[in-house]
Design goal:
Structural class: alpha/beta
CATH architecture of the largest domain: 3-Layer(aba) Sandwich
CATH class of the largest domain: Alpha Beta
Radius of gyration: 16 Å
Length: about 210
């Protein structure tokens, strides 16, 4: 398999932000007078976007308003010390792929300001040729990335940690891969039949490529 462009999801794939995202989501539920749920219930069922999350609980909110509220509460959560962390294998894997002369990019639903700030904090910003944060339609955005890089979809790998990531990759016609240390379980991910067998972590990419 010859792949030229490696695209990564952020939350649950590069950055372990499950706790701050959970706390943010619960504060949004309280804001709208909705009951909160346990972390274990929330984790495997939360939609990829804040609009989708709010809709799941019967809250109608447009993209701009929802994104602004999410960023406000996410930043508040981080100031309280509930912060995301870089998964330990990421730097090594990105270094390896860059050594193979691969183009690297990020496609994520994570808010743009937060994602770029985290990438800078982690010291990995310069590994990537392009960041697309705040995505509302990953399938369309993956297709746009292929055009941007002048790369055939079958030469692009998208690695994420949710069933939504696998579905988006398949819809865009790119190669799909998934790690099971993020938001969705191995069983959930395997049910979507990604093109590359589900990996424990990103180190699996180093072994494959």
């Amino acid at each position: 398999m010859t792949l030229d462009l490696f695209v990564f999801d952020w939350s649950g794939t590069i950055s372990d932000d499950r706790r701050p995202v959970y706390e943010t989501n619960m504060r949004l539920l309280r804001l709208f007078g909705k009951p909160t749920v346990l972390f274990e219930e929330w984790l495997p069922s939360t939609p990829p976007t804040v609009v989708g999350f709010l809709a799941l609980y019967g809250i109608d909110c447009d993209v701009q308003d929802a994104s602004a509220l999410y960023s406000k509460y996410y930043n508040a959560v981080m100031k309280e010390g509930i912060a995301p962390i870089l998964y330990p294998d990421v730097h090594d894997v990105l270094t390896h792929l860059k050594g193979q002369q691969k183009d690297l990019a990020v496609l994520s639903c994570h808010p743009p300001d937060n994602l770029l700030r985290e990438a800078d904090k982690y010291g990995i910003k310069n590994f990537f040729s392009f960041f697309h944060a705040g995505s509302q339609d990953k399938a369309s955005d993956l297709a746009a990335l292929c055009r941007r890089f002048g790369t055939r979809p079958e030469s692009v790998l998208y690695t994420g940690d949710t069933t939504h990531d696998i579905r988006a990759a398949k819809q865009a016609g790119v190669v799909s891969a998934a790690v099971c240390r993020g938001y969705h379980t191995r069983e959930q991910l395997e049910g979507e039949k990604p093109d590359i067998p589900v990996m424990e972590d990103l180190a699996g990419l180093k072994q494959l490529f």
